[in-house]
Amino acid sequence: MSSNRFLFTSESVSMGHPDKVSDQISDTILDHCLAADPMSRVACETLVTTDLAVVAGEITTKADLSRKTVDALVRNMIREIGYTDPTIGFAADTCQVDIVVHSQSPDISMGVDVGGAGDQGMMFGFACRETKSLMPLPIFLAHRLVDNHAQLRSSGALGFLRPDAKSQVTVEYNPDGSPQRIHTVVISTQHDKSVIGKDGKFTNEARKVLVEKLILPTLKAERADLIKGEVVLLLPGESHDKVSDNSLIVHINPTGNFEVGGPHGDCGLTGRKIIVDTYGGRGRHGGGAFSGKDPTKVDRSAAYMCRYIAKNIVAAGLAEECEVQLSYAIGYPDPLNIWVTTHGRTAKGVTELQLVELIRKHFKLTPRGIIETLNLRRPIYKETARHGHFGRELPNFTWEKTDKAEALKKDAGL
């Protein structure tokens, strides 16, 4: 690698990862509440472990939250993810479901009822030109790998896969910040006994199948131009010493085995994958999790608005990359600050101060304005809780629209 280039890595986790199981359960309950009562106030947390799911939190809603209803919601979500076999330590029909829910604090409600933010905090959004979706390339590819992993598993195309998996992608960048090549891919996937060899470890044949059926098709579909050399599958214990400069290095189940996984292998909690949920470490994070929170919680809604703003600025050609921060005080409607950085990559004649003024003019930044702009009082959140909240132009992901780009470009005089 050239001394002027650098490497950056991001990871994603599958819908069957324990933390993501928790996120999806929390957002399933949120969607249930919003479907019956768009004004629901929800802060729902979930814990999953061996044969157990615990749902807790503060919920004020007209929706049915009887034990029977919530129990069914939890089990249906677990079943949809793919945990149906009781022999692996966590399954929809056999796990215990504990429910501990009460109403939201009236001290919070009095500020939210008049349009104020549901909490204090700072939120960030990011966009750049590395992909068509204006997402950073490493996290975008990492998400696509676990997304395609889920499709291969659920379709039966690769029957040995189980729901728990992680991906990791390292990209080599040029000094100007443009991607040079895909450097390394790591896949760790839970599997059944059919791909365990006589030595008690995951077989090399199964690794090769994952390269051919998952890794290469995913990378080629997105950025075939960034696969610059041969694919080198490194087996557990092998070093990088003999790998040539342009090789695409691949690690698959590098510990040697991944039969025990999911909530039986690791306890899962809502909100522990906040970097996976956002930009893979590219750009800052305010620290607040998303899943299980209704849109009065600016941890979620303002982070969506920050992405919407940043994406429209980049789509308008005002910058090659853009990072936006908003901050709020609980019970107070207007943001305390608007901050923008483009890391010196604004268009000619455009300043970051000018971008702040354009944001003030073109975007409604109160919690009520954000909810109205992005139409957030709908049951749209379960899908966000897997494979990333950003970078997928799905119909309900309103924060991915670039409908403000032309107005921003015109107002900036470009």
Describe this structure in words.
This protein is of the alpha/beta class and 414 residues long. 32% of the residues lie in helices and 22% in strands. It contains 11 helices and 12 strands. It has a 5-stranded mixed β-sheet with strand order 1-6-7-9-8, covered by helices on one side. A hairpin with a 5-residue loop joins strand 6 and strand 7 (179-191). The model has no long low-confidence stretch (mean pLDDT 94).
Categorize the overall geometry.
Answer: flat
Termini separation comes to 38 Å
Number of strands: 12
Percent helix range: 25-40%
Largest sheet: 5 strands, mixed
Mean pLDDT: 94
Query: Strands across the major sheet, in which order?
Result: 1-6-7-9-8
Order of helices and strands: EHEEHEHEHEEHEEHEHHEEHHH
Indicate the proportion of strand residues. 15-25%
Task: Provide a short characterization of the protein structure.
This protein has helices at about 20-35, 65-80, 105-110, 135-155, 205-225, 260-265, 275, 300-315, 350-360, 365-375, 405-410, and strands at about 5-15, 40-50, 50-60, 95-100, 120-130, 160-175, 180-190, 230-235, 250, 270, 320-330, 335-340. It is an alpha/beta fold and about 425 residues long.
Q: Helix and strand layout, with pairings?
A:
Elements: E1 6-13, H1 18-36, E2 41-49, E3 52-60, H2 67-81, E4 96-102, H3 106-112, E5 121-128, H4 137-155, E6 161-173, E7 179-191, H5 204-223, E8 231-234, E9 248-252, H6 262-265, E10 268-269, H7 274-277, H8 298-315, E11 321-328, E12 337-341, H9 352-362, H10 367-374, H11 405-411
Parallel strand pairs: 3-4, 7-9, 8-9
Antiparallel strand pairs: 1-6, 2-3, 2-10, 5-11, 6-7, 11-12
Helix pairs in contact: 1-2, 4-5, 8-10
